[in-house]
């Protein structure tokens, strides 16, 4: 999800900025609403934003491929603080990473926020919501949310790279998409499992220690509390 | 409840195996842990002939180590502080 400066043509760089900004604006609005409603929201936001920054910068080695890659962190953030707020956190994380850590770039920030923030958060939250509706336990639903959210981020990055490739080239969109996907997936599949485990573990832990926070944020229902 | 307990019991050995096999293999997997972002950069250069632009802060050598260590420390400090505030000091309380 760290597309470097220079890898997207201007119109696509601008388009991704525009697309991401709509979601991020809703996230900023949600933050103001939720901080008034839930007392523990601010410290939780601080915790989750630092965690998203750290998780999405951490290069985890995958021995099977001999390569390394980053988890996203946004699926767990989407479950805990809300999908749109999670997108705001991804802006902060990706901006710092582009400025000081040579990961990503400013012209590609919109695209990176869209893949990691928007797609990662919505997929993670959507899978979690569907899992709960299907009767899965909190831990399993969160595990699936983390794993699928992670993979969705890299699917969308591959699509963005294929769509915005600069210069004249003979590859079709589909072929370019599959080329980038093939580079990401062998490394990303084991990491998606790991991200699923971390997501499931974190949500389960919070449900045990501070169920009141999850209840007030609407992550668990009153009647479900204590069952998980 | 019983159903999810069974799923956990089935998943746990698989995940333990995955973790066990991940780390011993690091010895023979090669010297260089190239990031997938770098792989994409190389492929993009190969396909389009366009290279990535220089990052705003070009972190090379020990500057990179310093920034990553400082960033990790800062993030860890924030997570630890807030974690303690939410989950240790107020564990079991209902003041969300």
Morphology call of chain B: flat
Proportion of beta-strand residues of chain A: under 5%
Subunit organisation of the chains: heterodimer
Order of helices and strands of chain B: HEHH
Overall helicity of chain B: 55-70%
Number of strands of chain B: 1
> Helical stretch count of chain A?
8
**Largest sheet of chain A, if any?**
2 strands, antiparallel
Structure report:
- The complex is a heterodimer of chains A (228) and B (96).
- Chain A has 228 residues and is mainly α.
- Helix content of chain A is 73%, strand content 3%.
- A two-stranded antiparallel ribbon of chain A has the order 1-2.
- In chain A, helix 4 packs antiparallel against helix 5 (109-133).
- The longest helix of chain A is centred in the last third of the chain and has 37 residues, at 173-209.
- In chain A, 59% of the residues are buried.
- Chain B has 96 residues and is mainly alpha-helical.
- Helices cover 64% and strands 2% of the residues of chain B.
- Chain B has helices at residues 2-22, 36-48, 62-88, and one strand at residues 34-35.
- The interface between A and B is large, with 69 and 58 residues.
Short description:
With 228 residues, chain A is mostly helical.
Throw out a few tags for this protein.
heterodimer; A: 228 residues; mainly alpha; Arp2/3 complex 21 kDa subunit ARPC3; two-stranded antiparallel sheet; 73% helix; 3% strand; globular; B: 96 residues; 3 helices; 2% strand; flat
Topology:
The complex is a heterodimer of chains A (228) and B (96).
Chain A: H1 10-37, H2 41-57, E1 60-62, E2 67-69, H3 74-81, H4 83-100, H5 109-133, H6 138-164, H7 173-209, H8 211-216
Antiparallel strand pairs in A: 1-2
Helix pairs in contact in A: 1-4, 1-5, 2-3, 2-4, 3-4, 3-5, 3-6, 3-7, 4-5, 5-6, 6-7
Chain B: H1 2-22, E1 34-35, H2 36-48, H3 62-88
């Amino acid at each position: 999800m760290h597309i470097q400066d220079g890898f997207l043509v201007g119109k696509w760089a601008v388009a991704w900025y525009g697309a991401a900004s709509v979601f991020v604006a809703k996230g900023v609005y949600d933050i103001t609403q939720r901080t008034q409603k839930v007392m523990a929201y601010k410290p939780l936001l601080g915790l989750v934003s630092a965690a998203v920054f750290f998780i999405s910068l951490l290069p985890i080695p995958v021995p099977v491929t001999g390569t390394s890659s980053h988890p996203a962190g946004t699926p767990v953030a989407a479950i805990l603080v809300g999908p749109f707020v999670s997108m705001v956190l991804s802006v902060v994380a990706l901006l710092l990473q582009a400025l000081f850590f040579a990961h990503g770039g400013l012209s590609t920030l919109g695209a990176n926020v869209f893949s990691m923030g928007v797609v990662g958060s919505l997929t993670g939250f959507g899978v979690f919501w569907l899992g709960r509706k299907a009767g899965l336990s909190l831990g399993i639903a969160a595990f699936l949310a983390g794993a699928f959210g992670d993979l969705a981020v890299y699917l969308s990055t591959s699509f963005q790279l294929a769509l915005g490739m600069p210069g004249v080239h003979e590859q079709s969109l589909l072929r370019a998409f599959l080329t980038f996907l093939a580079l990401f997936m062998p490394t990303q599949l084991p990491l998606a499992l790991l991200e699923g485990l971390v997501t499931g573990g974190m949500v389960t832990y919070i449900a045990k220690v501070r169920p009141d926070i999850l209840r007030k944020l609407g992550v668990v229902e009153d009647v479900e509390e204590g069952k998980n | 409840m019983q159903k999810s307990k069974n799923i956990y019991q089935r998943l746990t050995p698989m995940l333990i195996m995955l973790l066990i096999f991940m780390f011993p293999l690091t010895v023979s997997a090669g010297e260089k842990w190239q990031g997938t972002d770098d792989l994409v950069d190389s492929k993009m250069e190969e396909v389009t002939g366009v290279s990535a632009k220089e990052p705003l802060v070009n972190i090379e050598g020990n500057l990179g180590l310093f920034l990553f260590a400082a960033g990790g420390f800062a993030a860890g400090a924030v997570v630890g502080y807030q974690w303690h505030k939410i989950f240790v000091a107020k564990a079991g309380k209902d003041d969300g």
